[in-house]
Amino acid sequence: MEKENSSDLRGLLEQKLNTFKDFLSTTVLLKEAAVSEDVEDIKSLIEKRRSYIKAIDRIDRGIKKISEARITSPSAETRKGIEVLSMAIRNTAENAARLNKEFETILESRHGDLRKRISEMSRNQAGIKGYAGGRQRKEQPRFLDIRL
């Protein structure tokens, strides 16, 4: 039984590592899409990452179930293999977190730039305001056909 649990645990950890590697690859692509401002790619890559997160959560539930069912401790060799996989998962997750932070910084920067451009456009559109109903102007708009 202990042998089965250990091999199941090792299999789940390998799945988790592979899923984290896929998550990391998608995060790299997401950062590139943010730099190129490709909104469609960003949307699809975020969805892809969500599916990886769901898969990781499912794997974690399996790992928890095996850990709770374990009666004896694994052999030294099995523990070493589990430690190596756990360390690789941790490193991959840390790299993904770092890239995700860079992605968020890019988006925040782009958001600030966009907000600044919109603000500048609003200030520069004084001439358009005369055409936009609402307030009455003292003068007629410059480019409107009017009768003299």
User: Could you tell me the strand content as a percent range?
Assistant: under 5%
> How much helical structure, as a percent, in the residues?
over 70%
- The count of β-strands is 0
Q: What is the rounded distance between the termini?
A: 98 Å
Count of individual domains: 1
The DSSP helix count reads 4
Task: Tell the overall outline.
Answer: elongated
Largest sheet: none
Uncertain spans: none
Quickly give the structural class.
Answer: mainly alpha
How much is the radius of gyration in Å? 28 Å
Mean pLDDT level: 79
Q: Which H/E pattern describes the elements?
A: HHHH
Q: Notable features of this structure?
A:
80% helix; 0% strand; mainly alpha
Draw up the topology in text:
Elements: H1 2-35, H2 39-69, H3 76-124, H4 126-129
Summarize the structure.
The chain is 80% helix and 0% strand.
Description:
The chain is an all-alpha fold and 148 residues long. The protein has one domain (2-124). 80% of the residues lie in helices and 0% in strands. α1 packs antiparallel against α2. It is elongated.
